[in-house]
Amino acid sequence: MSGIPFIVSAPSGAGKTTLCKKAVAFFSDLRQSISYTTRKPREGEINGVDYWFIDNAAFDSMVKKGEFLEHADIYGKRYGTSRKDLKKILEEGLSVILEIDVQGAESVRGKLKGAVYVFILPPSLEASEERLKERGKDSAEEIRKRLKTAAEEIKLAPKYDYIIINEDLDEAFEKLKSVIIAEKSKSKRMMGRVKEGFGEYL
Ligand code: 5GP
Fold first, then answer.
1. Which residues pair with 5 in a beta bridge?
2. Which numbered atom of ligand 1 lies nearest the CA of 68?
3. Measured between alpha carbons, how far is residue 103 from residues 72, 74, 157, 197, 199 in Å?
4. Which domains occur in the chain, in start order?
5. Mutation pick for ligand 1 pocket among 12, 35, 86 (CB with most ligand atoms within 8 Å)
6. Torsion sign, CA atoms 63, 69, 73, 79
7. What is the mean pLDDT for each group of 10 consecutive residues in the chain (202 residues)?
């Protein structure tokens, strides 16, 4: 059985990365898709864990070879999801979180069978600004750019299957966990197991 791709988008400062990391630590059959980016690593980020950090020429070469399922330019940097890496995870029967922006989510719509779309919102844009400042890893200019984009991204929230407002981290995590558990329990995804145990009755 193939795993479920969870597409998670959020404006900057909504706490998406923290929530996704918690989910991956919680579910033994859930993995994080590691994107490729031309952005420089932030302090503490590790190549191959947070992202694959590559240069423009390497990114171009991957684009040319058709290696990306989707890729996007965000705040002047490039980000992409490897087709091959994703396929490998799903074929192992594992589910996967793709933390990608709204453009990426749009471009995988229809391409990724069974994908579930989750949008994380901060309680307000002011709260996002505070979180980005507290994180202290982006310049004032970078934060300004991210907040401006956030206002545009929020317009696309209604296209997602689920919306989680991250006012309180524990509560938001409970909601994300519930979404993942409910999706795994959908009858269409459970039929393999049901047939195994109860095939004679079906
Ligand atoms: P950051 O630079 O803060 O790590 O990420 C900036 C934005 O890029 C976030 O919205 C993040 O979800 C998005 N992003 C990260 N990886 C990918 C990717 O592979 N594809 C797309 N489309 N967006 C990505």
1. 96
2. 19
3. 7, 9, 12, 42, 42
4. 5-33+94-201 (3.40.50.300)
5. 35
6. negative
7. 91 94 98 98 95 98 98 95 97 96 95 95 92 89 91 94 97 98 95 94 92
